[in-house]
User: What shape does this take?
Amino acid sequence: MTSLAERYLDEGLRRHDHPLIVFREGAAGRRPALAGTRLDVWQVVETVRGSDNSTKAAADYLAIPEPWVRACVRYYADYRVEVDQWIERMHTLAAREEDAWKREQSALA
Assistant: This one.
């Protein structure tokens, strides 16, 4: 029970400093996400990177207000290692799923 209380305390403190960030449970684990959207922080950060580090371009692409993108970047600045681990984890998962799809397609050819 102590670890659960510690997790909620840590998340509460993070939410205090980053009010647009919530924590979401999923198949891949608990992760930081942008409140009111289906976007995880790592997805927003990846979109900013893919937009030549332009928060405006990322906001336009994601169809969300630019301050929301900046909120994710701010969270990333404070928790870079954690978000980078999510990015790596999701890239690994995507590569594994793509390989499985290719094997399926090859089996059907």
